[in-house]
Amino acid sequence: MPTVQIDNDRCRVVEWRFAPGAATGWHTHAYDYVVVPMTTGRLLLEEPGGVQRHAALQAGVSYTRAAGVEHHVINDNDGEFVFIEIEMK
């Protein structure tokens, strides 16, 4: 599922490809990061405390988050969902 494109002392760039229903598993982001959606769709986010919400993403519209985000991300689309994640070390 994840393909590491770059991993050096300054950043890590990973391409994520999710089949419908595929998920990341619970994780906490150790670094600030930027996500660049390559497809348009929505992801189901499960967050601490049982919170669930959908995030609508549009191809080419990037967003950033600070280190410490904890979640489980699920492809809630009928087709593959792809994004690039860039972590700043």
Write the layout of secondary structure elements.
Layout: E1 2-7, E2 11-18, E3 27-28, E4 32-37, E5 41-47, E6 51-57, E7 63-65, E8 70-75, E9 81-88
> What's the rounded overall pLDDT mean?
97
What's the level 1 CATH class? Mainly Beta
Instruction: Tell me the count of domains.
Output: 1
Strand order of the largest sheet: 1-2-9-4-7
Low-confidence stretches: none
CATH superfamily: Jelly Rolls
Count of DSSP strands: 9
Tally the helices: 0
Strand residue content: over 45%
* CATH architecture assignment name: Sandwich
Largest sheet: 5 strands, antiparallel
CATH topology: Jelly Rolls
Helix content: under 10%
User: What is the radius of gyration?
Assistant: 13 Å
Structural class: mainly beta
Distance between the termini: 22 Å
Shape: globular
**Helix-strand topology string:** EEEEEEEEE
Note the main attributes of this structure:
0% helix; five-stranded antiparallel beta sheet; single chain; 89 residues; Jelly Rolls; mainly beta; four-stranded antiparallel beta sheet
